[in-house]
Amino acid sequence: MTKIKLNINNKDTVLEADPQMPLLWAIRDLAGLKGTKYGCGVAQCGACVVHLNGEAVRSCVTKVSRAEGKKVVTIEGLSEDNNHPVQKAWQDLDVPQCGYCHSGQIMSAVVLLREKPDPTDQDIDDAMAGNVCRCGTYLRVRKAIHLASELQKTASNG
Amino acid sequence: MDNTSLSRRNFLKTTGAAGAFLSLGFYMPASAKQAKIVTAAEADQFGVELNAWIHIDQSGKVTIFNHRAEMGQGSYQAVPQIVAEELEVNLADANIVSAKGNKEKYGSQITGGSSTVRGSYKNLLKLSATAREMLIQAAAAKWSVDKATCYAEGGKVFHKPSGRQMHYGELVEAASKLEPPKDVVLKKRADYKLIGKPLKRMDTHLKTNGTAVFGIDKMLPGMLYAAVERNPRMLGKVKSFDDSAALKVPGVKKVVKIKRGVFTAYREGVAVVADSTWAAIQGKKALKVQWDDSGFEHLDTEEIYKRQAKALDTQEGLPFKKQGDVDGILSKASKKIEATYETPYQYHACMEPLNCVAHYQGDKLQIWGPVQAPEWLQEYLSKEMGLDKKNVEVNMTFLGGGFGRKALMDYPHEAAEISKAMKTPIQVVWTREDDATQGPYRPGITYRCEGVVKDGGIDALKVKLAGQNIGHASGAPKDKPNGSASEGFLKPYAESIKNLAIMDVPFETPIPVIWWRSVYASTNGFAYESFLDELAAEAGKDPLDFRRAHLKEERLQKLIDKIESVSGWKKRKKGEGFGVAITECFDSTVAQVVKVSKAATGGVKIDKVWAVMDCGWYVNPDTIEAQVEGSIVMGLGAATMHEVKFKDGIPVDNNFSTYQMPRITDIPPIEVHIMDNDENAGGVGEPGLPPFAPALTNAIFDLTGKRIRKLPFNLAAV
Ligand code: FES
Ligand code: FES
């Protein structure tokens, strides 16, 4: 066991963990933040996506030691009031069905929209192909990303 | 809003219903066919426990017990929408909590068979209207006016002539003392304000910020985590195990041998208990287990289908339906159409792997988990764990998908056994690999079809099927045909096809099988609707006209007209492949048209899917659209991407790296339409799946002249 210092959702945190432990389980079981989901454990489904220093990473294959001294943002820390443009778009279009995949979908979409504020369908496909949704909400995900792009623009103009 | 369950005592505490309240529920006398609506006072008097579906307190707050598990099909939304409509409250004022597994209290709670709405809506409407009438009656009495001059709206009762109004909260005390009226008048469809409207789901916001609590998210103080090594051949016993390396993994506390019941058999496993999920998984990897899996066959997929073919060659099967002179016509016909269709075993692949929290406390057991059938579970666990039923508490969480798999009792049973051995609260999390390789699976079925066409119609049709019968595991008689042999096949065909036989050829393997979204319709539909297309081609008829001629029912004719017009069927051009399929399951009928074209990169691509759903009376069109889209995506995966293959008795693919799932890049545009009528409500979560595969392969035939008779197939290789 090692003490690992990191910042989760703007809070300096010390986790006592086996440095080999994937960030996913450290976040869930040690930090008690259960919004980040386990889907496959092998970087295939995207349910576990979090932001590590602003980059979307699959926390199931990212060792907790890699987060030492870094900033981790999980779905719980994305916004104060569930009002990030991506969250709002998701709510507006009622994207989730069971909802299990959507922490990861949203975290992936946020990074996409930061890099490409006005994504084409192709951009969306490229960025979101790593996020599996068994309930099949893909068409709404695509629509919601376009909507979030609009919301983001109005927010920055206004 | 809270999605954890409440006991009635906690419920009263939490809702602050210390004062008076109006609480109405079903009282389902065992002898009576109809639900009896009772007040809390009546329930106490007769000593029956109240089904507290609706509870209105003095602040006017309405609490609804959501008696169904929420696994994505929107029952979280549908139930309050129904209640709020007839109760005349704003949807925002209606709070909803999940109810615990308790059959006496809540009636059937099994979420399966697309039954959430269709099984309960009439009772829910009546119950809500009864509460509304009692509140109106209470207000009329207070004002000493005729209750016919009063009406309810937005959680208040109004006296029309004087404009006086009273809040429900002010009326609950008086209303609770009234006798519930025997007959209440329900609203007409045209007067609905909420039902039939695309209202927002109430749980969405919980699913965009990580606050929705799924089974895997449940935490209890002092809870430990367990991972279980289970026999890779699914059946069989633990011969011996060596846990010395596992016990050295940091965080691992203990290793215990445990069992879990799967249908009537027990399966053994070795559980590693640790202080984090990951430590438990590491410990599990370090285990060395010797399995005893003698006594059953280690089958390969090829062998299974070879045996199905042989069974179909050599056996006539048990008649599920037999009318007219099928065999006579088939044997004498100058031309007979024959085709064999193969459908694969399928895995549910819920995004949330199986998991369960159990806290065994000697004389009491508490369960929290993503469970589809809490009442079965309560009953099952009380037997298995030797506890009084009232001391088994089953709490439903959100489900990250269910699709039939989470109606089984094995994973909570396992959690209960481990908690008992450890004397602490335990969460068992199945790894994706565990989840993918332990089954039960949807059975793979082979269909042998024969038909004769005469005067542009079907003269005779015979379908023989060989596949495992899901019912056998729970004791269905083996000398009777599978009761679901025609699921998916439109019932009116049995009237227009005078010479018809559906024969079930008995077939067994040691592979455990279970329902999978839309159950038999998901495989049957492919065979029936593909073969109809082959017969239409033989008759030289347009596939849609051919179906129209055989489906005389008015409701179906309207559905066919609709799919024809929305898909532009008649205007289709050369070089465009159009295919249609229509199937029925769970009292809903869905027609789909798929359009395909040659892909630039080889093979074919899907350009568009049109779907028309006839589910009768419905609550939320937005939910239906989402469910049909989701069903098509799941159907697409099952038709073109994945199957469970067995090698030496072991499922081959154990994760999404090889078990390919549909992704955003694979999804064609989908257009969903809903038929408007007042027929009885049918299911919406499943019936959109079965027509997809045959509509797709029929479209490929239209484009290329090639028949695809075996699923799954690779679109790029067509
Ligand atoms: S759980 Fe990390 S990608 Fe699936
Ligand atoms: S909404 Fe269920 S897996 Fe995506």
UniProtKB/TrEMBL annotation, chain A:
Residues 2-78 form the 2Fe-2S ferredoxin-type domain. Gene3D superfamilies: 3.10.20.30, [2Fe-2S]-binding domain (1.10.150.120). Keywords: 2Fe-2S, Iron, Iron-sulfur, Metal-binding, Oxidoreductase. SUPFAM superfamilies: 2Fe-2S ferredoxin-like, CO dehydrogenase ISP C-domain like. GO terms for molecular function: 2 iron, 2 sulfur cluster binding; metal ion binding; oxidoreductase activity. Transmembrane segments: none annotated. PANTHER family: BLR6218 PROTEIN (PTHR44379:SF2), OXIDOREDUCTASE WITH IRON-SULFUR SUBUNIT (PTHR44379). This is (2Fe-2S)-binding protein. It comes from Dyadobacter luticola.
From TrEMBL, chain B:
Residues 1-32 form the signal peptide. One of its GO terms (molecular function) is oxidoreductase activity. Keywords: Signal. This is Xanthine dehydrogenase family protein molybdopterin-binding subunit. Residues 209-295 form the Aldehyde oxidase/xanthine dehydrogenase a/b hammerhead domain. InterPro entries: Ald_Oxase/Xan_DH_a/b (IPR000674), AldOxase/xan_DH_MoCoBD1 (IPR008274), AldOxase/xan_DH_MoCoBD2 (IPR046867), AldOxase/xan_DH_Mopterin-bd_sf (IPR037165), N-heterocyclic_Hydroxylase (IPR052516), OxRdtase_Mopterin-bd_su_IorB (IPR012368), TAT_signal (IPR006311), TAT_signal_bac_arc (IPR019546). Transmembrane segments: none annotated. Gene3D superfamilies: Aldehyde oxidase/xanthine dehydrogenase, a/b hammerhead (3.90.1170.50), Aldehyde oxidase/xanthine dehydrogenase, molybdopterin binding domain (3.30.365.10). It comes from the Bacteria. It comes from Dyadobacter luticola.
